[in-house]
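Protocol step 4 of 6: structure prediction from sequence.
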Amino acid sequence: MKIRAVNKYLIGGTAMLMFAASAGFAAGVDSEPKDPLMFASGGMGKDSDSAYLRQARYHYNVHLTFVNKNGAYQSGVHVRLVNAKGEVIVDAISKGPLFYVRPPYSLPSSHYKLIVSKDGKSRQYDIDVGDKLVSLRIAL
């Protein structure tokens, strides 16, 4: 009886680790971050990337959704986040229509410039990131 219980937990734990490892590739860390900044990007489907994003979205306080002028989701959007000192802290291409950012927790509230572009179209936003969620649906 105890052996079965241990095996059940080992199998369950192994499955969770395998899911975390397979889904973890959707998250990215800036290659040379000034602060511990993280982001995740992906799609809206039922694959492991999307499942990871649905679970992980609660850990990010900046949520971006990219659409075209007709409202269809789009990927391949260039995302740049610049801090108040003018330092680029995110410079990435979205893997899907969703892009989540978690700025450094060491700063309780910070001002950032968000620049997004695709196919020669660009949008710029000034955002204040703190304890509250910043959610933008951006049409390019």
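Step 5 (inspection) to follow. Residues 2-23 form the longest helix (22 residues).
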